[in-house]
Automatic annotation (TrEMBL):
<dbReference type="GO" id="GO:0004069">
    <property type="term" value="F:L-aspartate:2-oxoglutarate aminotransferase activity"/>
</dbReference>
<keyword id="KW-0663">Pyridoxal phosphate</keyword>
<dbReference type="InterPro" id="IPR015422">
    <property type="entry name" value="PyrdxlP-dep_Trfase_small"/>
</dbReference>
<keyword id="KW-0032">Aminotransferase</keyword>
<dbReference type="InterPro" id="IPR015421">
    <property type="entry name" value="PyrdxlP-dep_Trfase_major"/>
</dbReference>
<dbReference type="InterPro" id="IPR015424">
    <property type="entry name" value="PyrdxlP-dep_Trfase"/>
</dbReference>
<comment type="similarity">
    <text>Belongs to the class-I pyridoxal-phosphate-dependent aminotransferase family.</text>
</comment>
<feature type="domain" description="Aminotransferase class I/classII large">
    <location>
        <begin position="4"/>
        <end position="339"/>
    </location>
</feature>
<dbReference type="InterPro" id="IPR000796">
    <property type="entry name" value="Asp_trans"/>
</dbReference>
<protein>
    <recommendedName>
        <fullName>Aspartate aminotransferase</fullName>
        <ecNumber>2.6.1.1</ecNumber>
    </recommendedName>
</protein>
<dbReference type="GO" id="GO:0030170">
    <property type="term" value="F:pyridoxal phosphate binding"/>
</dbReference>
<dbReference type="Pfam" id="PF00155">
    <property type="entry name" value="Aminotran_1_2"/>
</dbReference>
<keyword id="KW-0808">Transferase</keyword>
<dbReference type="InterPro" id="IPR004839">
    <property type="entry name" value="Aminotransferase_I/II_large"/>
</dbReference>
<comment type="subunit">
    <text>Homodimer.</text>
</comment>
<dbReference type="GO" id="GO:0006520">
    <property type="term" value="P:amino acid metabolic process"/>
</dbReference>
<dbReference type="InterPro" id="IPR004838">
    <property type="entry name" value="NHTrfase_class1_PyrdxlP-BS"/>
</dbReference>
Length: 345
């Protein structure tokens, strides 16, 4: 960077132009009409959290009283972000403990019942904390209801490429909604997929009905950002722009993500195999295989997670979530024994 003469002058409020370009293209695909027709307002944010927070401030200012619907459960910081933005929120049903799967009927009913014009926060892929994503057919039905009710979809995309191993597959939900011509918001993070946690690099994208609206939205987002943090940091933005802009580095990154996603899938399979081979109760463990991403809901309740910790020294969150990124193949058998013991005691 020094050799290239890159300095540490301030970025413009909206961030590094080369970053904003590639981040939008990674998300929507370079040929997407929302980009071609300049209907997209992209502003670099302070990673996923900062981008969500900027959107929170935008909603509070321009949609006073509008509610954000969030999944139950969701990533722990969502509620804090909307509380601090003074945006009212409520929850929609998402997790069904009976199947350790999606409560699809409940989700649809709650989105339908919300006041017209609400924002619906959706995890683009690899739902945190459950690891449970809607199927493509379910995404279509979710889009139908959102459209019917004039709601505004608001995606949180913190794991693009890291869930399935493919950047395009993991962005399919967002692209499906964009293809319907809906106006929508997407917060992006490069913490996980590029391992840039501490660089605080991400973006807020707003798809608008016209290029004129996109210009206005971008201008208003900048007005909100200016007194909050003035302008975003440059280093992570350059890393993303350099990696995506260089074919060799881009391919290397994609191969590494594929490897990471593949490793997690391998661990899921091994854990499932151990569970089904050892557990004689007839319990269906296939939810482990159906879930996606680094997190998995085990279906263990609070008392059962305490057994995991006290007896087996497996430390996990009390909601029953484990991180598969921290599990090696060699430890799957031990974990499986611990889970079975905790379930049946
Ligand atoms: N959204 C979700 C669903 C997440 O899991 C995370 C990280 N745990 C984030 C957003 C934001 O992370 P960051 O601010 O580091 O991008």
């Amino acid at each position: 960077m020094i050799e290239r003469g890159e300095n540490k002058e301030y970025l413009p409020i909206e961030g590094l132009a080369a970053f904003n370009k590639v981040t939008a293209e990674l998300l929507f695909g370079a040929d997407n009409p929302v980009i071609k027709q300049q209907r997209l307002a992209t502003v670099q944010g302070l990673s996923g959290t900062g981008s969500l927070r900027l959107a929170g401030a935008f909603i509070e200012r321009y949609f006073p009283g509008a509610k954000v619907l969030i999944s139950s459960p969701t990533w722990g910081n969502h509620k804090n972000i909307f509380n601090d933005s003074r945006v009212p929120w409520s929850e929609y049903r998402y997790y069904d403990p009976k199947t350790v799967g999606l409560d699809f009927e409940g989700m649809i009913a709650d989105i339908k019942a919300a006041p017209e014009g609400s924002f619906v926060l959706l995890h683009g892929c690899a739902h945190n904390p459950t690891g449970i994503d809607p199927t493509p057919e379910q995404w279509e039905k979710i889009a139908d209801v959102i459209q019917e009710k004039n709601h505004i979809p608001f995606f949180d995309v913190a794991y693009q490429g890291f869930a399935s191993g493919s950047l395009d597959t993991d962005a399919a939900s967002v692209r499906l909604f964009a293809a319907r011509g809906l106006e929508l918001l997407v917060a992006q993070s490069y913490s996980k997929n590029l391992g840039l946690y501490a660089e605080r690099i991400g973006a807020i994208n707003v798809v608008c009905a016209s290029s004129d609206a996109a210009t206005r939205v971008k201008s208003q987002l900048k007005r909100i950002a200016r007194p909050m943090y003035s302008n975003p940091p440059i280093h992570g933005a350059r890393i993303v722009a350099n990696v995506v802009g260089d074919p060799a580095l881009f391919n290397e990154w994609k191969a590494e993500m594929e490897m990471m996603a593949g490793r997690i899938k391998g661990v899921r399979q091994k854990l499932y195999d151990n569970l089904t081979a050892t557990d004689k109760s007839g319990k269906d463990w296939s939810f482990i295989l159906k879930q996606i991403g680094m997190f998995s809901f085990t279906g263990l309740n609070k008392a059962q997670t305490e057994n995991m910790t006290n007896k087996w020294h497996v430390y996990m969150t009390k909601d029953g979530r484990i991180s598969l990124a921290g599990l090696s193949l060699a430890k799957c058998e031990y974990l499986s024994d611990a889970i079975i013991d905790s379930y049946h005691n």
